[in-house]
Design a protein that fits this description.
By secondary structure, the protein is of the alpha/beta class. The protein is 48% helix and 12% strand. Among the domains are: 102 residues, Arc Repressor Mutant, subunit A (Orthogonal Bundle); 162 residues, Nucleotidyltransferase, domain 5 (2-Layer Sandwich), CATH 3.30.420; 113 residues, DNA polymerase, domain 1; 74 residues, OB fold (Dihydrolipoamide Acetyltransferase, E2P) (Beta Barrel).
Length: 717
């Protein structure tokens, strides 16, 4: 199998791109490093494409390995033929390989294997041949009656032969392939209520059908869950005539043999008893697998957008973790995320308690100069938001507030990591700190939380655990490395997401920092315990050292390119990398030069040159600063205030297959159905919308009883 050739064709790339990418992966390089610092080798492919190539490479290599295992097994049985060998060579999926292997695979005892033990295989063979001059099957069967073998009558012998024929038909790879294709093209997914009297969230699927070829992924996942929870009975059906035609075309020979009808009967038995249950499971499994893969992609995209939300830098933040009985937990953090003060405000209790809550929060705002307030969106969030908006007006504060998702905050606050970070605070106060920090720097805070707990995407709890974790870990890794990490302020959680840095090395970096003071150069990393040369190569370019005398240490320029970067600076009139001068002019100066000649002179590729220029023109840059800032609110609305046609600004909270949920400041997110996003046709909402995006919407309808808000992005006439 030409694995490189297959990937080249599938991804519409040049062969050298795939060859080099595979070699870099095999050499133990991380995807962020390959994407950022080996652009010449792979032709500037992005990190997502590189990950997909890596996954496909692994799949095809496993496929090749399985082919070899199957070949070896059949060969050891001395049943290998040129035909089987060629079929294995051509097989492109694991399903095809397993179909080929099925007749030779060791089986548990079956009706057919029992019949073979009774010596009935020759009879099955005679019937299968369907000779025109053959005797009737029952007459042929009479010769195989043998009490010692447990064959008491001709009818017993004939039934045993039919069992063998049925299993042979079931094991036929061509029949299975054709039926599998037929199910895919013409099959129907059917779901019925397990108990029509029981109401559930799956009521829309109590009498549901849709072609296999058209059913949407989110419906597949919903049906699967409904079945697991006992509310639905699900099947995949296929026109029995079409199925029979496939089998008869492969098994019935021309002519008028007395045995033909028996083969037909065996074919029907093969389909209903053996093939249909098996292929139905395969089809449902493939539908679920595809739906899960698509859902993971959506989850990954949403997570990426969430992690790369613009930070609110340089502002003192107050975090509110709402609650009824135990009160609202309050935490003030400075511009660097350091905790300044904490407390508990009983916002929903008696008037006296409410007044005390006002005094506490007002004193925090005035004492510490609070500029932004982050309110968790959990229990009592609405009451806390109303309280906050009223208080800000009352005290004349210019601070804005934002309701932030507290998904995962409780997971983090109860974690070992949170206990190590804040041993002096109880669990609920840690949540308030986390909520405040989420507004200041979403990426730095969210990396501390299991991505599955962050609350974007759909049906994440139904996803295959390994695939989901791998995908989300990749997203977090790419996000962290695209932004870069301050070596002197980053937490172990953040450092462990840097390419080439595991959790042990991350802790060792922090330990070195605590023992020796701040890092003053990237080269100091080599002194960190267990951070070897390979790890340094992978991580160095993603770690920033603002305190370094060498300005390059505070950029995305990799140390391996420092010589070229210094030469470039000198060519442009900047004599020293130790001067943090305004280097914006470097872009203007290099734009006047022939960059192809310049890259050749410096001994680097053109993509690397472009990256160096970009980094030098804005040392210490944060790519998130180029994004629109998050929308802060100063007033609050209630669901009852909403009227059809009302125009509002909102923030996209989640993008799913059938639409997007938008926070419009009324506690309950509104749904913009995919049909209401734009006037042009789109396959998926993610073509237009991203998590965190601020959008203009209009109210379509409000159902206060069910807590549902329907929105549109199409401006009413």
């Amino acid at each position: 199998m030409d694995i490189i050739g297959i990937i080249t064709q599938e991804f519409s790339l040049k062969r050298w791109q795939v060859e080099n990418t595979a070699a870099l992966i095999d050499d133990g390089n991380t995807i962020p490093f390959i994407a950022r610092y080996r652009k010449e080798a792979h032709g500037t492919l992005d990190d997502q494409t590189l990950r997909e190539i890596s996954e496909r490479l692994e799949y095809l290599r496993n496929l090749e390995k399985r082919k070899e295992e199957v070949f070896s097994s059949i060969d050891s049985q001395e049943k290998m033929t040129e035909e089987i060998s060629l079929a294995l060579e051509k097989a492109q999926t694991l399903a095809e390989i397993e179909d080929i292997y099925r007749p030779y695979k060791p089986k548990r005892r079956t009706r057919a294997s029992v019949a073979r033990e009774k010596g009935l295989e020759p009879l099955a063979q005679m019937i299968t041949e369907q000779k025109e001059d053959s005797a009737e099957p029952l007459v042929l069967a009479a010769d195989f009656v043998n009490s010692e073998n447990g064959v008491e009558t001709p009818e017993d012998a004939l039934q045993g032969a039919k069992d063998i024929i049925a299993e042979d038909i079931s094991d036929n790879a061509d029949i299975r392939r054709r039926l599998r294709n037929l199910f895919t093209v013409s099959g129907e997914v059917i779901s019925k209520a397990a108990d029509e009297e029981k109401d559930s969230v799956y009521a829309q699927y109590y009498d549901f059908s849709q072609p296999v070829s058209k059913i949407a992924g989110h419906r597949v996942l919903a049906i699967d869950r409904g079945e697991r929870e006992g509310f639905l009975k699900v099947s995949v059906t296929l026109d029995s005539v079409k199925a029979a035609n496939v089998i008869t075309s492969e098994t019935l020979l021309s002519g008028n043999s007395p045995c033909t009808e028996t083969v037909r009967e065996a074919g029907e038995d093969a389909y209903t008893r053996l093939i249909y249950p098996s292929v139905e499971r395969e089809i449902r499994s493939s539908l679920t697998e595809k739906a899960a893969a698509d859902a993971i992609k959506v989850f990954s995209q949403n997570l990426k957008e969430l992690l790369l939300q613009p930070p609110v830098k340089g502002k003192v933040a107050l975090g509110l973790d709402p609650g009824y009985r135990t009160g609202c937990k309050v935490a003030v953090v400075d511009a660097t995320g350091r905790v300044l003060d904490t407390g508990v405000a009983y916002i929903t209790h008696s008037e006296r308690k409410q007044q005390e809550a006002k005094e506490l929060i007002a004193s925090f705002i005035k004492k510490y100069g609070v500029e932004i307030i982050a309110i968790g969106n959990g229990t009592a969030s609405k009451e806390t938001e109303i309280f906050t908006a009223s208080l800000l007006k009352e005290i004349g504060s210019s601070a804005g507030y934002m309701v932030v998702s507290e998904a995962g905050a409780s997971v983090y606050s109860a974690s070992k990591l949170a206990a190590e970070e804040f041993p002096q605070y109880d669990v609920s106060l840690r949540s308030a700190v986390s909520i405040a920090r989420r507004l200041q720097d979403p990426l730095a805070e969210l990396v501390k939380i299991d991505p599955k707990a962050i609350g974007v995407g759909q049906y994440q709890h139904d996803m295959p655990k390994k695939e989901l974790e791998n995908a989300l870990d990749g997203v977090v890794e790419d996000a962290v490395n695209s932004v870069g990490v301050d070596l002197n302020t980053a937490s172990p959680s953040l450092l462990s997401r840097v390419a080439g840095v595991n959790s042990t090395v991350a802790k060792n970096i922090v330990s070195y920092r605590e023992e020796n003071g701040t890092f003053t150069s990237r080269t100091q990393l080599k002194k960190v315990n267990k951070l070897g040369e390979k790890a340094f190569q992978q991580c160095a370019g993603f770690l920033r050292v603002p305190e370094s005398k060498n300005i390059l240490d505070n950029t995305g320029v990799h140390p391996e390119s420092y010589k070229a970067a210094k030469e470039l600076l000198e060519m442009c009139g900047f004599k020293s990398t130790g001067v943090s001068a305004d280097l914006k002019e470097i872009k203007e100066k290099t734009d006047r030069l022939n960059k192809a000649e310049l890259s050749e002179k410096l001994g680097i590729g053109l993509p690397t040159l472009e990256d160096i220029i970009k980094e030098l023109s804005r040392p210490g840059r944060d790519p998130r600063d180029e994004l629109p800032p998050p929308m802060l609110r100063s007033d609050v609305m209630d669901m009852s205030d909403l009227k059809p046609g009302m125009e509002l600004k909102g923030t996209v909270r989640n993008v799913i297959d059938f639409g997007a949920f938008v926070d419009i400041g009324v506690h309950q997110d509104g749904l913009v159905h995919i049909s209401q996003i734009t006037n042009r046709f789109i396959k998926h909402p993610s073509e237009v919308l991203k998590v965190g995006q601020v959008v203009t919407v209009w109210v379509l309808s409000v159902d206060e009883k069910k807590g549902r808000i329907a929105l549109t992005m199409k401006k009413p006439n």
